[in-house]
Amino acid sequence: MGFQLTQRLEYAQALELADPTMDKADLFREALEVFVRIQTAKRLAEQAARFTLAQRATAH
Hints:
With 60 residues, this protein is mostly helical. It has 2 helices and no strands. The chain is elongated and about 55 Å long.
């Protein structure tokens, strides 16, 4: 199964599982907000890891 087809199936499944009264634009907005939160958390975790490694390097 191709990547695009998989993505479409996942989107269709998400629409089925979402609140049936929710507008598709609202669903997309919510998904985008979650994506931004996850990306932000990943970046913060990476920065914390780099900071921790730098601290360990200077402590020795």
